[in-house]
Structures are given as C-alpha cells and as structure tokens.
Amino acid sequence: MTTEKRAAKVSKASLHRIFTIPEAPDSKLGIVEREISENLAGFLGNHIAASERALTDIEKDFASSEIPEQPSFVSDHMHHLLDKVVAQSVHTSSPSFIGHMTSALPYFILPLSKLMVGLNQNLVKIETSKAFTPLERQVLGMMHRLVYQNSDDFYQSCMHSASNSLGAFCSGGTIANLTALWVARNNLLKPDGDFKGVAREGLFSALTHYGYKGLAVLVSDRGHYSLKKSADVLGIGQDSVIAIPTDENNKIDCQLLKARCQALTEQNIKILSIVGVAGTTETGNVDPLEEIADIAEQYQCHFHVDAAWGGATLLSNKYRHLMAGIDRADSVTIDAHKQMYVPMGAGLVVFKNPASVAAIEHHAEYILRKGSKDLGSHTLEGSRPGMAMLVYASLHIISRPGYEMLINQGIEKAQHFANLIEQQADFELVTRPELCLLTYRYVPEVVQTALMKANVEQREQLNVLLDKLTKFIQKRQRENGRSFVSRTRIEVSIYDGRKILVFRVVLANPLTSQDILADILTEQLALAKTSQTFLPELLTLAEQVNVSKVG
Ligand SMILES: *Cc1c(COP(=O)(O)O)cnc(C)c1O
User: Stretch 342-354: mean pLDDT, rounded?
Assistant: First the structure.
C-alpha cells in the first residue's frame, strides 16, 4: 500500500463540487462535520482556553503573508483549523468565563446559523431577501414595542410601511449609536429655505446657516467609547462629547448635566443629544432616565438611551422598572448579541418617531428605489446578513417569560456574589450590582484597616500597590485558564476620586453556579499569596500605617 500523501488539485470539476451539497451523511464533508462537532464538544470542556501558549507564540502560526498557490482538501484544512484556531481560541461559553459580556449561546443557535449562512440572504434589499425583510421589520417592531409599548394600531400601521421605519438593525451597539446620532444630527440641521440640509451641504454650511458655534453630545463619564467614534465620524469631533461626572452610584449627576446644558446654550453651542446609559459597560448602572428626559425636553434636544447591554432587562417584568423613563427617549440602542444570547453581529436602534429615520434616507437607481421597502435605504451598512432571523427565532423559542428567567437569575446571582464578596474578610466590593455586573478587588483585612486610618499620601501608596496586585492576580488567573474575570480602572469617591484597578464580573452564563463563584474567590486568594513582591510590600506598608496611628 502506498502512503503517498494525497495532493489537492485545482480543476473546474473540483471547484464545481465545492458549491454542491454532499449527498450522503458519510460523505467526506459529513465525516469532517461530525469530527468537528466531536472535537468542539471536547474543546468546550472545563477550561476557558484549551491552549496555554502565549499570543506571541500563536502569532508564529499566522506568520506568512503569501496566499497559498496550492489548494487544500477541505478535510485537511479542517484539521489545520482545529489545531491552530479552535484549540487556541477563548472558550467564552465556559461557566467560569465571567469577565465579559460575550457569553454562552443556546444550542439551537448553531443549526439556525448554518441555515442563515446557507441561505445567504442580503437584507439590503428585497430582491435578495424577500421574507427576511418583513421578518426583520417584525423584529424591529417587537423591540420597539418592548421599549415604547404603543398600541396595536400603531404597529399595524407602521411596521411594514415603506414611509416609516421603527428602527434599524445593524452589526452592533457601535453602529446603532452612530445611526441614532446621525438621525439626530440630520433632523437638527434639516433643510430650511435655500439650505439643503447637513446631509447635502455638510456641517460647516449647516452651522453657518443655523448660526451655531458648535454641537455637543452630553453623556456621563461612564459613557461608551463608541459615542466618541460616532462624533468623530459625524464631523462633530470627539472633544464635543462632553463627559458629565457621575455620583457615588455611577449615575450621571443631573445637577451638573443641567448646569452644563445651560452653559453650552449661553455659548451658542447647540446640544445635539443627551445620552442616558442604561447599563454602563464598566459598572452596569442605569442613569436616571426620567430626569434626563426632563432636561432634554427643557433644552429641546434629542434624547438617546444607550441600552446596548442593559436593554434586555425590559424583558423582565420584575426588573423592567429599573429602566423607567426609557420610553421617553427619541432613540434607544439595544444589542441582541449581549443579554439576548444571540451571536455577535446583532445590534439595533429603535426610534420613537417612525418618521425620523427619513432624515438619513438614501436612494439608488438599481435598488432602494423611492417608495420601496428595501431596508438598505435606512441603514448605514449596505450588504447585511439575515441575523434578524436568529433574534426572531430566539424570541419565539425562549419567549418573553424565558428571557425574564434568564435576566432575573443573572441579577440575583450578582446580588449573591456581591454578598459573598462582602462576607470575605480579604475582599472589597467596589460597585454593588444594579444589574448582573459588579466590580471588586482583593484587599487583605489589615490593608482595609490601614486604608481607613491612612492619610491621603499613604492611601495613595496603598492603592498603587493594590493596583499592581489586582493586575497580577487577574493576569495569573487568565493564564491558569480555569476561570476568567476582566479588569478595569474606575474612579471611586471614597478614595478621593482616584481611579483604582478592579476585577469586573458579568454574570451572563446561566450555568455559572454559586460553587463556581466561590471557587473563583478561593483561586484569587491563592494567587494573591503567590505574589513575591506586591503582597509583602503592601502588608509591610499597612503594618506601618496601622502601628503609627495607634502609637
Ligand atoms: C457593548 C456596548 C456598546 C458597543 O456595542 P458593540 O456591539 O460592541 O459595538 C455601546 N454601548 C454600551 C453601553 C455597550 O455596553
């Protein structure tokens, strides 16, 4: 028998075969698929990362910039992918991966995604999507109703109407926020007499015509960086996104917001939008939306709510009240790929007034003709996949009460974890969870005592060492690969407004048990003890502070 290595060849027939469906389940592709599923199941074991190799080592697997001259057999390439990509990726669906908003997916998403990819519908126009267009409009209608709770009649008349748009489906929260501010900008600087509008004439002419010295977007200092990107793209400038300080609960200070609105108005800088955050990325808190709505009304400006992460809370009748006032927003961003358990690439923005989207309407001769129902006439993105089908399916399969269970148990698990942290002598809860996100750090008991007794200078020294220790523990924990929490730097009022480094936990995976949470703290305690420099230094300093004050 020859053991000669088979080589793939390029031919018309072989290329044709790539685009035809293999007939039998025991065909090559069928076998490869089965193997992948099995390997995947093995890979989705207990560890968050199957490979312990450092990123710089992994980069060596992806070093060549040459496009292969030699074709590969699909089965050979699949093995390559399993080794080099699958085995070296991050296992975001592990119940002990609790550091980010990206989490586990329901099992039915895999076959449905295959269907979506196979159909390869392009949602930019009806000619390439047909039923997917009304499907997406219905999903936007459902999400609009979740936020605004309008009447049946309203949705009957708007949902499938060519002249209205309840929202825009897009690839994520960034594009959703950009779309919201784009609509706000074009409605503010709309055509007027000889002036053809900002969309046609640009920002310079628009400001000249309306007599404004500039535009501003106001958001709390916990606002997401996508707002700055949006301001940049829209020509307003990143510096025009003004960060308003937050209170001790990480919510925007409405007194300061109001004062800033007044000052800007007196300077003839028009407020383009006030943005309320419903679930901040770093601490998971919700701004006082009712109060912000009042201020936006007073200054007659667009009110946007960035609920990219927190918006799904509206599906819970028990916790919906945390978002009170969201229905007064002119636009709301929600990411289905965060707390709605849909894979990435599913963001959306809904608009209170379905006619407001006309301000960004675009037409072309071969598609998006005037009066058509093509979705592409109201979206920033052009060609788009049928992701809405996955949201549609999830809303049907899980249903509103199912989502409510997921949301409620996430919030309640975060409360449990917060209590657990508070009961531990050597941990400090930094931000209490309002939704299912919290921050904390490891602070040995003697250091906690020292922090209370220390003067400003000593407190700073202690916090510098604590930052180093937090970073050390977080990196070690990630490298160990058993569990993962993220880290961020946030201002804390009890430490003189200093930015301290904290562990950040997002409890999204329904399979994360109380035991796993307890284990994570145990692991962190053990990792802290392995610190040869920061921990001894910290303890010595704390000792000094404690003794000096007593004596
Ligand atoms: C995640 C997030 C975004 C950005 O969304 P992407 O889907 O990552 O583009 C914007 N705002 C908030 C509050 C978020 O949590």
Answer: 97
